[in-house]
## 1
Amino acid sequence: MKKTTTLILALALLISLALPFLVPSGALLDEANYQLLEERWQEEEDSGALSWLIPSAAAQPAFEPLPMDFSPGRPLDPAGFTAEGYEDESIRVQLETRELETGKQHVVRLRIATISITDPSQLRTATAGKPASSKVALVSSMAEKHNAALALSANYLSHDPVKTSFEYRMGVRIRKKPNRIKDLLIIDENADFHLFVKSNAKEIEAFEDAGHTIVNAFTFGPALIKDGVLLTIDKNYGYNPHGREPRLAIGQLAPLQYIVVLVEGLSGRDGVTQQEMAQILFDLGAIQAFNLDGGNSATLVFNGGYYQDKTKSNERAQSDMIYFASLAGE
Amino acid sequence: MYEDAVILPVPGARIYAYGLLLALGCWLAIILLWRLSSRHERLSRAAAFTSLLALPMGFALARAMYCLLDSAFQPILTLRNLLNVHTGGFAMYGALLGAALSALIGARLAGANKMRMLDLLSPALAAFLVPARLGEGFTTLGISRPLTTSWLADSFLASRDAYDSYLRTYLLEAVIALILAVFLIRMLRRNVKEGLAFSSFCLLYGVTQTLMESLRYDGHLRFGFIGVQQVLSAALFGVTLIALSVRALRRQGGKLLPVIALASLPLVLAALVGVEFLIDRSALGKLFSYGLYLPLLALPAALGMRLIKGEEGLG
C-alpha cells in the first residue's frame, strides 16, 4: 500500500510539471484578450472591412503633425506657461475659475479651460498600458510623460462595468459594441466631435460610410449639447444624473477649438446635476458637449499640477486620459 | 511596453515563469502534505489522492471561476476560449477551492477523517501560495495603486514603469503565506482538535487577503466595480468567525466572546466598506487609511483566534 501511495504522489509531482507549459499568467493576457475580441467581432460582422486609416490634417499645418499613435506630444516651452494658461505657436490653453450659484446658498466652482490647436493630431488620448489593458496610472503621471499642455480624465475605460461599449483610442479599436442606453462621443480625423445619443451600430456604420475615420470614441455621457442644441438629460441616465456631483465635460466650440469644464463643490462631494452641466457648457458657447466620468475620477492636469482642488494622494489612478499636445517643441 | 507574461529562454519550448513557480508551489505543497501525513496510513493515502486530484481540480476551478466572474472575459466567454488556457486568466480562490474539495474526496476514498485531512492541507496550501505569489512578479498582477509616498516608491517593495511606482503586493502576500504556513505547521505539532488548523487558515488567510486585495489594484477578477477576490476573502473570514461563534454558543461555558464576535462582524464589514471609500475618495493619505484598516481587521482575527484557542483547550 505504501508503494501505491508513493506512486500516486510521484504521479502528482509529475503532473504539476505541466504547469510551466500551460499557465502564462493569472491575468488574462492583453494580447490574447485583444486577439479574441477581434475574432469575436469578425464573426459578428456582416462585412469584414473596417477602416484603420490614418487621418489626414484638414488644413496644411505650419508644423509637422504628430503621428496618430500613442507617441507623446512634443516638449512644451517652459516660457509658454503663465498663471492663466499656456501658449506657443501651435496651441493655446486658457484657464479660468468662476464661482456659480446654482441654488439657494449653493455655490460651486467652475474650472474652465478653453483650448485652440492648429492641427487635429494635437487632440490625443493615452492609455496606462496597452489599449485594452486594465493597467492604471495617475493621469498626472501620464500627462507628464506625454508632454500634455492640458490633460483630463476620460471615461475610465478599463473600470467600466458595462463592457458593451464602443471605444477607440488613437485609431485603435478597443471595443466595438455600441451601447443602446448610453451615449457616444466620436472624435474624427479632423478632431471634430460627433455625438450619438443612445448609440447604435447602424448610425456608426453610416458615419464611417460617409468617409469619416474614428480616431477616438468614448461611451459614457450623457451627450449634453448636440449640434448646438441643448439636450434634456434622461432622468434615468447613468449614475445619479440629477444629483449634485463633481462633474467633468468636454465640448467643442468651433473647428480645432475646445472647452473643458470641471465642476467641484466648495466643500466635500458637491457639484451640479447633469442638466446644469449641460446649461453651463451651452452658456459658454459649446456646440457639442459630452459628460465624462465625474466624482473623484474627474481630473484636470496642467503644468505638472492640478487645475482643481486635488492632491496626488487622492488622485484616482485610471486607465486612460484625453490630452492636448503641442507641435512646436523640438 | 508592458510584458504580460515572462517566457523563459529555453530553446524549443515555451516555458512560462509564472507556471514554473506554480509548479514549484505544487511540489512544496505535495511534499509538505506527504510529510505531515506520513505517520498515519489512512491520512497518508488520503494525502496521495488529494495531491493527485488537487492539480486537475484546482486548475479547472481556477480557470472556470476566472472566466465566469471576471468582467473582462465576459465579451469573449465561449467554451473554446474557456478551454484555451494559454490566454491566461485564473482565480486563486478557484485553485484553493479545488484543493479543499480534493482533500474531502481523498479522505473519503481512503476512509480518513475529513476534518483532519483539511487540517493537514492548510499549511500545504499556505506553502503553495509562497512561490505562487512570487510568480505574479512575472505577470501584470500583484501591484498596487500608484505610490505617492516617495520613501515607499523608492524602496525595494516598489516596482516602477514608464509612469509611476507601484507597491509589489505579491511580495507581501508571499511573506504572509510563509508566516501562515509556519504558524499552521506549529499548530499541527500541538495535535490540536480536528478542524481547528483549517479554521485558522480560513480565518487568517481571509483576514490578511482582504487587506491584500484592497492594496492590489491590478484590475484582476473584477465583477463590475467589485473586486471578487476581496469579497471572497471577507466572506471567508466572516463565515469562519460565524461558524466558530456558533460552535462556542452551543458549548457550555462563557457566551460573551462568541456574542461579541457575532455582533462585531457586521460592524467590521461596514467599517471596511467605509475605509475602502476613504482610500478611493478621501484627500487623507493612503497610509492613514490603511492605518485604520489594520485594527479593523485585527478585531475579527483576534476574536476568531481567541475562539479557536478556547476550542483547543477543550480538545
Note: Chain B has a mean pLDDT of 92.
## 2
Amino acid sequence: MKTKLLIWWIDDERDRLTPAAQRAIEKPTHPSLNHRRAHLELKHVGTDVETKAIVSEMVEAAKVKQLPDIVVIDQILNVKSSDGAVERGSSLAVRLRVQGPSVPFVGVTGVPFERIASLQKNQFIELFSRDAVHKGDCIPDLFAIADGFATAIKASFKLTGKATHRKKLIDLLDAPEEDAELLYPCIPGAFQCRWDDETPHAFARWIWHFLMGRPGFLYDDLEAATLVGLNENGLERIAAQLRGCEYDGVFASVSRRRWWVSKVRSKVRDLTGADASEPLWLLGRRIAKNQRKLFSRCYGGTSTDAPNVVAFADDSLRKRVQTRIQDSAPLDADTPPLGFEQRRIFSGK
Amino acid sequence: MSADQPKPTKEHFEVDSALLSEIGEKLVTTPHVALAELVKNAYDADATEVRVTIATDQKGMPTVEVRDNGHGMTMEAVRRYWMRIGTTNKIDDDVSPKFGRRRTGAKGIGRFACRRLGRVLEIETCALLPKGQRSETGEKFERTKMVFPWDEFQPGSMVSSIEVIATTERLAKAETGLRLSISVAKDDEWSYRGYAYLKRQLAALCANQGGRRKGYDDDPGFRVFLVAPELQGEGETEDLREQLTNAGWGTLTARIANNGHAVCELVAKGLGKRRITSTRKFNYLTDVQLRLAIFVIGEKEWLRDKSVVSLGNIRDFCEDWGGVQVRYRGFRVYPYGDVEDDWLGIEMDRARRLAKPGDDEVFDYAQALDGVNPSRAMLNMLSMKSYLGAVEIGPKQDDLDPKADRMGFVENAAYRELRGFVRFAIDWAMVLRDYAVQLEESKRRDALRRRLEVEHGRKLSPDGSADDAIKTLRYAVQKVAEYVPAKEKKNLELLADATAYLESTLKVTTRDLSRLRLVASASTLTLLFAHEIKGLTSTFASIGKAITHAARTLPAASGKRLIQLGHEVAESERNLSELLELTNSMGVLDRDARPIRIDLKDAASRAVKRFERVKTRYSIEIDASAIPEGLQVGPMLEGELLAILINVLSNSIKSVIAAGGHRMIALKAERVGKHVRLDVLDSGLGIDTDYFEEVFTPMISDPSGTLYDRLQKRLNPEDTLLLGSGTGLGLSIVRGILQARNGNAALVAPTADWKFHLQLDLP
C-alpha cells in the first residue's frame, strides 16, 4: 500500500473543487487515514483544452511509469466532441482506461444519480455525489478503491486461470474457509480465467457493487444488527466483541463497513457458548446484556417478534428499516445474482 | 373375372379453353390489375428493374410491353411453370430464389391476366441454364421466344390441343430477363383513374430500396420505370421510386458543401421549399449526400401525391422498408436502416419523449418560427420507419472505416459526424413539420373564420379567440330560435345553456391557466436556484469541518466557541441540503418521476422539517406523532404528496400565527377503506362553514378576509416571503392532485379543541 497517492482530478470547471476540499483529500483527517497523504493533480478540460490532451497525457504517464493511483472525473463535462455531442466523463473514462487499464476510475457528479444512465455509471467503479466530495465523506472510499485496485492488479499476474490458482482469488477477498466453496460458483467466470485489460475494472465493480453492495456473503451494519437481534446502536455496542468478523479483503473501506455473515454467526455462538438450536437474535441480545433500548424492532409495530430482514420503507428507496419477511415483499425488477439475497420492500400497513 | 363384365378404361380430365377466360379476363377485372400482376411476377423473379411501356398501335389500340432483368426462364421452366395451369411453385416456394424476397403474387394468374391486355402475347426470355445442361462449348444461356395467339383458345377446344410455337437458342453471353409484348387489344380500357391504381401498386414495390436476408444474395432493391405517352406527357418516363420519394409529406435532401457546412433542403406539403446551411462545420465529411422521403403514417392529409401512394400501402411499405439506409460507394452498409436498427437514436429519443432539439442551431431555428414552441418541437418526431431513403457516401469520402465483418462503420470521429449530420437534417425537418402542423391549423381556422365572415356576416378577430367562437355560437342559437317551432324550444334552451356553460368553463380555465403558467415558471426558477445554491452548501460543509478541525488544535477555552460555530455551520448546511433535496423531489420538470407508494410518516416529517425555523421563531407546535409508522400512501408521485403536505402545513402555520395564543398543529392518519385519511388540525383562525367549499376555489386565498390582515400584524417583515402572500391556489392544488388520484379534500367542522379541520383522503 502506497502511503501517498497520486490522484488525477478531471473537471471542466477550474474552481469547483474548493481549496478546503482539496486539503481534506490531500491530508485526510479520518482517524484510519491519518498516516496517508495524497497529491492532487487537477486537470482542466474545456473549450481550450480538449479531452484528447488528457488521453495523450495518460499515454505519456504510462510510458514513464508514472500513472496516477486513481482518476476522478466529473461526469457532466461541458466539452463538446467533434460531432457536437457533449462528451461525458464516462466516455473519457473509457478512452483513458484503454491507455491505463491498471488505473481505477471513479466519477463525481452534481446531478441526481437516477438521471444518469447505467451504461455511463458502469464506466466508473463508483460515482460519488459532489456533496460527498465536499463534505469529505467519500475520502476513505477513494483510498480504499485506489488500494484495492492496486492489490487486485498485483495479484492478477498470478491468476492463470488454473483451478489451483482460484484460491488466490479467494485470498484477495480474505474469505472465511466455509464461504470459499460457496463463493467459487458465485464469482463470475470472467474473474476465474486469465485476466485481460478490462477485467480489473469489472472485478472492482463486482466487489464494490455486489459482494459489498448487496446482502449475501457480507452484511452492512443494519443487516448485521438485524441478524443478531439488535438495532445499529446495539451492534456498535458489541462491535468490539465481534472484532475479526469485518470484511478486510480487497477494497475494504472504513466508511463502508461490512461483516462476513458466516463469521458473525460462529462468533456469536462462540461468545455465548450456545448450541445451534438457540436463535441468533436471542444470542446477540444476550451479548448486549439484554438492554431493551439496543433491541431491534419491527418497523411500524407490525410484529412483536424480532425482525429478520432489512427492507426499504417505501418505493422511494430512501430509508431502510428492520422488519419481518412476511411484512415485506421482494423488490420488483431486482434479480439477485447467485449467492445473494433479494432486496425487499416493506409492504406497509 | 367373368367375360361378361365390362373392361375398365382409364379416363382423364381435360381442360376446355374457356377456363383461360375464367381465370384470365374474368378474374382480372381491369387491365391495370392485369399489368400490376405482370410486374409483381418480375419482382418475384428477382428483377431489380422493370420497364413498362403502354403505347398505341397504328389503329390507336393500346399495346403493352413489360421488360425486366430477373432470372428469366429456360424452355424447361416455361413448360413446367408457365404452360402448366395451377402450378403451386409460388405457394411451395414463398420466397424468391436469389434475394429471398417474399413473393407478391401467388395465384399464378399473372400469365393469364395477359389476355385482358391483348389477343397476342409474345414472350422473349433468357435464363442461365442449370449446370448439368450447359454445353461444353461454353453456351450457358438459353433464349426462348414464344407467341401465344389467345384467339385460338376458343371455348370448346381443349387447352392442350392448341399449339404454341417456341424457338430456343443457346448463347455464351447474354443478359437474363423477360420481355412480354402484348398487342391486338380488344378495347381501350385504360383510364387515368386506373393508371393511378397501377402506379400505386407498382410504387409500393419500389419501396424496396435494398436489403439483406439470411441465406440469400444482397437485394439491391426494385425500380419500375413507366412510359405511357397517352396517359402522361410525350417522351416522359416515370421513375416510380422517384415519384414515391416525392409523394409523402416531404423530401429531405442534405449534402456537405465545399466549406464543410451542411446544406439541407426540404420540399414539403404546406411549406414549399425550405433550406438551411449549418453554421457548424463537419470537418471529417466531404462526399456525403442524404435523400429521404418522409411519410406521416396513418394521415392522408399529409400526402403530396395521392396518385402514387395510398394510406394502406404507406403503412405496409414503411413497415417493411422504412429506415435510413447507408450506401458506401454504391453498396449498402448493414445494419443501418434495417427494421430493428436505430443508428440515429431516433427511437430512443422518441421513447424518452425528447421534446427539445438536441442541436442548439436547430433550437434557434425553431425559436424563429411563428407558433412553434422550441422546447416542445420534437415531441411529434416521426418514427424511424417514416423515412425512406439513404445517405450516399461517395468515393471522395475518407475516414469512414467499414468494420472487418462489414457490419457498419468503426465508431470514429468521422462516423460520429455522419450521424450528427443526418440527425441535424432530420431534426431540422421535424421542427419544420411541427411548423407545418401549426400553419395548417391556422389555415383551417382562417378558412372557417372567412366563411363565417363572408357567408354569415360575422366579424371575427384574426387571432381567433375562443370568445369569438362562443359569441358566434350564441348568435347561431339566436338565429335558429327564430325559426324553431315552440315544441322544440326545450332543445333550444339546452343548446343555449350548454353555450353559456362552455363560456363560463372557458373563462375559469383561461384564468387558471394564466396563473398556473406563472406558478410553473416560478417552479422552474426555484429549481435553477436550487441548483445554483448547491455549490454553496458544499462550501458550508467544508467550512464547518475546517472550523471544527481548527478548533481542536486550540486550547479548550477558546476552542469551545469555535467548535460551537462549526456545529452551527454544519447544522445550517444540513437544513439547506434537506431543503434542496425536497425541492428536487417536488421538481415539476422531472418527467421520469413515476407514481410510487410512500411512507406517510417519513414524508410528513420531511415536510414539517422545512418549517423548522418558523416553527421555532413563532413557537408553533407541530405534532405528527399520530401518523402510524409504516403507513404507506399511493401510488402517487412523491412530489404530489410533498406538495400536498407543504401546502396544508403552510396554510395552517399562517393561520396559527395570525390567531396568536397557543399555536398548535396536528397531523393524524389512519386507514379508512381503500384510502388513508389524513386529518390536518390547527388552532388558528378557523373558517366559517359558509366558506368550506369556497376555499377550494382557485385564487380565493382568504375568503373571510381576516387572515392576511392579522398575519401582517403578527409576522416579522422578513418572514413574509417565507410564507407568501397567498396565491389562493394552495387548497385547490391539494384537491386537484387528490381527485386526480381518486382521493379528495374537504373541510369538516372541528371538534372543541381545534379551530380548523381539513380531511384528506389519500390514495
Note: Chain A has three domains: 4-150, 154-211, 218-346.
